């Protein structure tokens, strides 16, 4: 960790943090401690956590305290999400989490260069703001939300740019699940390089 970084003094806008089960994507079903940072300039119209967009609406909490709370939960896996967490320099946060032997994933739209080393990079691009080139190189997982029929072609365009080892997921937008899930099932059967991601935490009625 850089000598200029003090986890007791470094602060991030924290909307919420909680221990739950990861409901989406590659790590679905795994116990995970979520750190949700406030602040986002992507502006997805169907976002289900729009209250996260305004960073000023949430308290700034020290990295030291965030990590302490994560450690107390008993987790071995942390998911940094938002909002758009890559808006911030996460170096101090991820270094402290790693020093406590915690595995780290990030969920990001890929619109910012990531500052800090994570173990799993979930890249979920959005049409509302273009990703940076780095996101395609870093992506361990590409998760595309299907909200319109054109999103299937859009997903394929992104899949062409990620590494061959990147895991590919299509996820129906929750409010349109009844419409698009049957289409996704048919699509994945025809294109088995893709997997289906569902927001299983909503079925389980957990955060």
Structure description:
The protein has six helices and nine strands. The protein is α/β, with parallel strands linked by helices and 207 residues long. The chain has a single domain (11-203), classed as Aldolase class I (TIM Barrel, Alpha-Beta Barrel), CATH 3.20.20.70. A nine-stranded mixed beta sheet has the order 3-1-2-4-5-6-7-8-9. Helix 1 (63-72) packs parallel to helix 2. The radius of gyration is 17 Å and the shape is globular. The relative contact order is 0.16. The model has no long low-confidence stretch (mean pLDDT 95).
Question: What is the compact description of this entry?
Answer:
By secondary structure, the protein is α/β, with parallel strands linked by helices. Helices cover 25% and strands 25% of the residues.
Q: Which architecture per CATH?
A: Alpha-Beta Barrel
Number of strands: 9
The average pLDDT is 95
Strand order of the largest sheet: 3-1-2-4-5-6-7-8-9
Number of domains: 1
Tell me, what is the CATH class?
Answer: Alpha Beta
Helix and strand sequence: EEEHEHEEHEHEHEH
């Amino acid at each position: 960790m850089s000598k200029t970084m003090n986890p007791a003094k470094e602060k991030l806008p924290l909307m919420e943090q909680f221990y739950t089960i990861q409901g989406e994507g590659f790590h679905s079903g795994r116990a995970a401690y979520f750190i949700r940072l406030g602040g986002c300039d992507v502006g997805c119209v169907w976002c289900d956590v729009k209250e996260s967009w305004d960073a000023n609406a949430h308290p700034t909490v020290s990295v030291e305290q965030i990590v302490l709370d994560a450690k107390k939960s008993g987790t071995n896996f942390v998911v940094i999400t938002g909002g758009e967490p890559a808006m911030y320099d996460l170096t101090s946060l991820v270094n402290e989490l790693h020093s406590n032997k915690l595995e780290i994933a990030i969920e990001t739209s890929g619109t910012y260069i990531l500052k800090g080393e994570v173990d799993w990079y979930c890249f979920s691009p959005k049409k509302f703001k273009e990703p940076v080139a780095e996101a395609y190189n870093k992506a361990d997982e590409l998760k595309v939300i299907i909200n319109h029929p054109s999103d299937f072609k859009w997903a394929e365009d992104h899949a062409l740019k990620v590494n061959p080892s990147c895991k590919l997921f299509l996820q129906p937008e929750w409010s349109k699940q009844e419409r698009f899930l049957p289409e996704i099932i048919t699509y994945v059967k025809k294109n088995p390089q893709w997997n289906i991601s569902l927001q299983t935490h909503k079925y389980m009625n957990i955060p």
